[in-house]
Design goal:
20 helices; Cytochrome C Oxidase, Chain A; two-stranded antiparallel sheet; single chain; 658 residues; mainly alpha
Length: 658
């Protein structure tokens, strides 16, 4: 019995035989031991539970999203460096074919779903309630559950690297590679259930923020007076609500194929793999816009703030954001022009893809006109914004090239496509969220990040990006296709691949500078003495202390424009009298709850049971989820009131800091 158990653990459960994976297993084990020892030594277990694991405070949830996203950026970035190392030289045997397939699969999934999405949701949580003058999101309990579902879904996916085996059918898992015939191991099941569990959290977050924005705005704030970042969150969240159910259904059908022997996507059983590809891109292309739309909102707020000007073309920006959200559902077939759908279908999707470039271009001109004759301050957030514009213009132009169906027959599946995709996703999404992090960092933590180290990181990121991806356009036109783990000397691709790999490592160095920047700023932090950390804040989040108190606003603000705080500062500077303050009233707040965390643990247990086909594990996991739902339905002590005297003490202490 013991021998059978050890054989299972060493041969089936844990991944053995690869030194890179062994190193990861040792690192993970040592990290977990170090965390347990540190929490025990400093007696922080109760603090961890009461302040973080059970919190429903949107600001703390946002910070946890950001921390998780930065960890995933490290994991996905290491995968990228391994890929580029393998491709640097012809016929290199650094990674064997199976390991290479697993790494580029996990790289794509992690960067899109477990890095970009949580970084986006982190900014949603930190900024939106403050910008609209709310004290929390519409559904605080659901907000906590959304984070923990994302977190444990991400952990279920990531654990496959060291337990059971990673998925290796590509980041979108096309059949037949993702069917049992192509992926008989457990990796694809980790893929399905990790994404399914985290996807439930993403869908819930989308619903939560749509309701928050529509129903919880400050008195007087009309829709057309909302800050542009809030508009971008609304457009992204609406897209989430319509796109993520498609992903859920698609992966569930694939699960039925694998688990119950159905044939939705298998030709020999009467199914059709192209149905999967249509479905996955009906989610996948809107997903690209889901993550880029909030970045557009960040750029709009940053440009307006550091140009000291009102955003040019507010209404056209709103129209552009909402039209992109709408048209994103009518472009998915441009991902497979080479399938043979026919001229009419290809023409329709080529036209819609070109159309969506129009509102995207409108925003670029709006940002440029906002900066025109403005008094620009070159802060770290503004630098990332300025770097984005030329990068995204090139990415957009190459996207239009790919939208031309005849040309796509040349570009399809080549490194030209890889370069375009990363130009948009890094130059747009990553640069945008970096701008947002630097911009709102003092609002989160009460201090700015070190400027000198930040500029080193900025220039290394930008130089590394162009050195890495510009050669890939040429490689694509030279015929280099993606997904191959090696190539021959006579292809002539080696020089450009060497340059591209050097660029990737420069970006890795830039990330190290950012980690150094955060650590340095924490150690030598200079506390912000004003809630308006940049001095030029225009929206409501800059009207309150940094970091914001639990209740955000002691008195709900009255709003009459999109730049409410800026206009109030201008009014006072011009000799206006301060507005009379309304009397303080008790503030209604939600109580912390441990149920979201516990329920998500049971989701993880059930998902792990489904992956291994362990009924003894999945059934208790599902029962645990049901019990948590039942416990929540009978929990009536879900809120409380902060008394006026406590609010007064908090406000007095905050004014003392300021």
């Amino acid at each position: 019995m013991f021998k059978d158990f050890m054989d299972f653990m060493l041969n089936d459960f844990f991944i053995t035989g690869d030194p890179l994976i062994l190193g990861a297993q040792v690192s993970i084990g040592l990290s977990m031991v170090a965390i347990v020892i540190a929490l025990t030594y400093f007696k922080k277990w109760r603090w961890l539970w009461t302040e973080w694991l059970t919190t429903v405070d949107h600001k703390k949830i946002g910070i946890m999203y950001v921390i998780a996203a930065l960890l995933m950026l490290f994991r996905g970035g290491v995968d990228a460096l391994l890929i580029r190392t393998q491709l640097a030289l012809p016929n290199l045997e650094f990674l064997h074919a199976g390991h290479y397939n697993a790494i580029f699969t996990t790289h794509g999934v992690i960067m899109i779903l477990f890095m970009a999405m949580p970084l986006m949701f982190g900014l949603f949580n930190i900024v939106v309630p403050l910008q609209i003058g709310a004290r929390d999101v519409a559904y605080p309990y659901l907000n906590s559950l959304s984070f923990w579902l994302f977190f444990f879904g991400a952990m279920l996916f990531n654990v496959s690297f060291v337990i059971g085996g990673s998925p290796d059918a590509g980041w979108l898992a096309y059949p037949p590679l993702s069917e049992l015939s192509g992926s008989p191991g457990l990796g694809q099941d980790f893929y399905i259930w990790g994404i399914q569990i985290s996807g439930i959290g993403s869908l819930a977050s989308g619903i939560n923020f749509v309701v928050t924005i529509l129903k919880m705005r400050a008195p007087g704030m009309k829709l057309m007076q909302m800050p542009m970042f809030t508009w971008s969150v609304l457009s992204s969240s609406i897209t989430i609500m319509f796109a993520f159910p498609i992903l859920t259904v698609t992966l569930f059908l694939l699960f039925i194929d694998r688990y119950l022997g159905a044939h939705f996507f298998t030709l020999d059983g009467g199914g059709n793999p192209m149905m999967y590809i249509n479905l996955i891109w009906m989610w996948g292309h809107p997903e690209v816009y889901i993550v880029i739309l909030p970045a557009f909102g960040v750029f709009s707020d940053v440009v307006s703030t550091f140009s000291k000007k009102k955003l040019f073309g507010y209404k056209s920006m709103v129209f552009a954001l909402m039209s992109i959200s709408f048209f994103s559902f009518f472009t998915w077939a441009h991902h497979f022009f080479t399938m043979g759908s026919g001229a009419d279908v290809n023409a329709f999707f080529a036209i819609t893809t070109m159309l969506i470039a129009i509102p995207t271009g409108v925003k670029v001109f709006n940002w440029l006109f906002t900066m025109f004759r403005g008094r620009i301050t070159f802060t770290q957030p503004m630098l990332w914004t300025l770097a984005f514009i030329p990068c995204f213009v090139v990415g957009g132009m190459t996207g239009v090239m790919l939208s031309v169906a005849p040309a796509d027959f040349q570009f399809h599946n080549s490194y030209f496509l890889i370069a375009h995709f990363h130009q948009v996703l890094i130059g747009g999404v990553v640069f945008g969220y970096f701008a947002g992090l630097y911009y709102w960092w003092p609002k989160m933590f009460g201090f700015k990040l070190h400027d000198g180290l930040g500029k080193w990181a900025f220039w290394l990121w930008n130089i590394g990006f162009y050195v890495c991806f510009m050669p890939q356009y040429a490689l694509g036109l030279m015929g280099m296709t993606r997904r191959f783990n090696e190539y021959n000397f006579d292809m002539g691709w080696q020089p450009l691949n060497v340059v591209s790999t050097i660029g990737a490592f420069i970006m890795g160095l830039a990330f190290i500078f950012q980690v150094w920047q955060i650590a340095h700023s924490i150690k030598f932090l200079k506390k912000e003495k004003s809630g308006d950390a940049w001095g030029d804040g225009r929206t409501l989040e800059w009207s309150i202390p940094s970091p914001a108190p639990m209740y955000n606003f002691a008195r709900l603000p009255e709003v009459s424009s999109s730049d409410a705080w800026w206009e109030e500062k201008q009014r006072l500077a011009n000799g206006g009298e301060p507005k009379p303050l309304a009397p303080l009233e008790p503030i209604h707040m939600p109580r912390n709850s441990g149920i979201p965390f516990i329920m998500s643990v049971f989701f993880f247990i059930a998902g792990f049971g489904f992956v291994w086909h362990w009924t003894w594990m999945l059934v208790p996991g599902l029962i645990g989820v049901g019990c948590c739902l039942l416990a929540r339905s009978f929990d009536y002590d879900t809120d409380y009131y902060i008394p006026v005297d406590e609010i007064e003490r908090t406000e007095a202490a905050l004014k003392g800091v300021r």
